[in-house]
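Working notes for the structural subgroup meeting. M.R. asked for a predicted model of this chain before we commit to crystallization trials. I am recording the input and output together here so anyone reviewing the notebook later can reproduce the run.

Input as submitted:
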Amino acid sequence: MEEAGRRGLAVEELVAEILSKALNITLNPQDRAELHLELAERLLAEAEELVTRGDYVQASEKAWGAVAHVVKALAAREGRELRSYRDLWVYVDDLSERLSDRELRLLWRTANSLHQNSYENWMPPRDVRYAVEDVKRLTEKLKRLTTSN
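Returned structure, recorded in token form:
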């Protein structure tokens, strides 16, 4: 878990990376995308559950992770691998431009405010609840893009 955190990866991502290297197997873009989509679904469900339990800090982190994984899934479908926060931002910026969709930018910034909140715990509970709803809308919107290509 520590190594995954150091690399900015989910534990499952790190395990898949280690296994693919150890077995000398390259995951194809579709397999990478599916891994990210499965992680996103799990994290979003956890975020919603955490909100109902009143754990807004953990809900913030899980919701952020869900969006990050859907973005990584879209990039994987294009044969790209995003490894840093900057890569994620640049990709969403490019995607928003390609689609002429400014709402992506707004929802992305909301997701990033949740990421910051997971470290600083400054958002009021109501704002976390609304932001998680926005993240759900963003993940659904992005997931539709993964199937439209």
